[in-house]
Automatic annotation (TrEMBL):
PANTHER family xref list: AMINOTRANSFERASE, AMINOTRANSFERASE CLASS-III
Family under the similarity heading: Belongs to the class-III pyridoxal-phosphate-dependent aminotransferase family.
Organism: Blastochloris viridis (Rhodopseudomonas viridis)
InterPro entries noted in UniProt: Aminotrans_3 (IPR005814), Aminotrans_3_PPA_site (IPR049704), PyrdxlP-dep_Trfase (IPR015424), PyrdxlP-dep_Trfase_major (IPR015421), PyrdxlP-dep_Trfase_small (IPR015422)
Cross-referenced Pfam families: Aminotran_3 (PF00202)
Protein name: Omega-amino acid--pyruvate aminotransferase
Amino acid sequence: MPASSARAGSPNDLEAFWMPFTPNRAFKAAPRMIVGADGLDYIASDGRRIIDGTSGLWCCNAGHNRAPIVEAIRKQAGELDYAPPFQFGHPKAFAAASRIAALAPGDLNHVFFANSGSEAVDTALKIALAYQNITGNGTRTRLIGRERGYHGVGFGGISVGGIVGNRKLYGGLLTGVDHLPTTYNREQQAFTKGEPDWGAHLADELERIVGLHDASTIAAVIVEPMAGSTGVLPSPKGYLQRLRAICDKYGILLIFDEVITGFGRLGTAFAAERYGVQPDILTFAKAVNSGTVPMGGAIVRAPVFEAFMRGPELAVELPHGYTYSGHPLAAAAALATLDLYRDEGLFERARAIEPTFADAVMSLRGLPGILDIRTIGLAAGIDLEPRPGAAGRRAYEVMVAAYEAGAMVRVTADTIALAPPLIVDEAAIGRLTGIVANAIRTVG
Ligand SMILES: Cc1ncc(COP(=O)(O)O)c(C=O)c1O
C-alpha cells in the first residue's frame, strides 16, 4: 500500500488539509492544534489554556463559545437548516440585514449578504461597477485600491489589494486598476497611539490618479479605514475626510472595507462612525457573528440601491449572489451576536479600554529589535527588525514562543498583530502583553 493511502486511513493524518496562508510543512512537523475555546481562551490539544490575542482571526469579538450565540445556532439548526436565498427567503436573513443596517451610519441601509470578507469585497466592487454602468457612466470602469491594502483573496480583492506576495503569482489580475500610496511612514509616525498626525495629504494622490486617467474612467476607490492584515496601519488624522471630498468632487464611489474594523474593533460599530465619514458601500464579515458561522456582506447607501430598483419588476436587478447568502445559521448567529454586543455594551467597552490597551502594548517599546508600535482601538501592530536575509523569521519565532507560553498572536512579515476579544479586561491585557514581551526577549 502506498504510504499516502496508509496515512489517509489514519485519524491523525495531517496531509490532506492544504492549510491556507500557512507554511504547511513547518506546521505539520510541529502542529499547534486547538481543540476548544472558552471566553478569552483557546484550549490546546495538550490541555493548556491559550489566551486569544487575535480574536481568532480578527473575528471572535464577543469572545469564545458565548452561550447565547451557541444556543441560537443550535436552535436554528433544528428549525431550518437551509433555505435558498434566490427567489425565496427566510425571516432571519431579513432581520439580520435590518439590524446590521441600523448599526451603519447615515443612509447605508441595504445589505447584500456574502459568506466571507473576500466575497464581500468582490460584491462591493461589482455593485460599484454595475452602478456606474446603469446610471449612464459606463466608461467608469477603473477601480482604485491602495498599496499595503488587504481585501481578501478573490481576483477583485487581490487586484485592488496592495500586498505583493498575494498578487505576484496570479497573472494579470483585473485590468484598469491603480493604487494610492500606503499611508504608513515610519519616520513620521513611529510609536503613535491612535491616528497619526502626519499623512492626510496622501489622500491628495487621488487627485494625481484622476489627473492621469480622468475621472470619467474611475468607478470607485476602496480602502480599509485601518489596514489590519498588513500590520495595523490606522488612517492619518483627516485622511478619510479628504478622500471622501475628492471622491465627491469627481463622482467616484468610496468603499470602506470594514471586514476587520466592523463591529467594535475601533470602539464603534463601524470605523465610519469613529471617523465621521460615510462611504457609499461598506463591507463587513468576521465579527458580524463573532466568527461563528461564515458570513460577510456589503452595506449600500440608499441612492446606490435605489438606482437598481428600476426597470421591469420581474427583472433580477443585480445578477450576483451566493448559495449561502444570508444562510439561516449565520443569520441566527448574527442576531444573537448583535444582541450580545448591545446588551454587554462591547463597542463602548472597547472604546473605554483603548487607552489601557495602548499603554500596555506601548510599554514593550525598548525591547530588543522593536522598530515601531502602533495602536488603535483594540488593535496593535508591533514591527520587529527583520533578521538579515530571513524576513519574517523573527516574528514567526515570537509567535511560536508566545504560543508555547500561552498566548495566540498573529504575524505578517515581521509584524506582530494583537487584537483581543472586546471582553478583554486590564488583567488579561497584562497577561497577553507579558507573554509577548517574554517571547520577544527569548527569541532575541
Ligand atoms: C480588510 C479585509 N478585507 C477582506 C478580508 C478577507 O476576508 P476573508 O478571509 O473572510 O475572505 C480580510 C481578511 O482578513 C480583511 O482584513
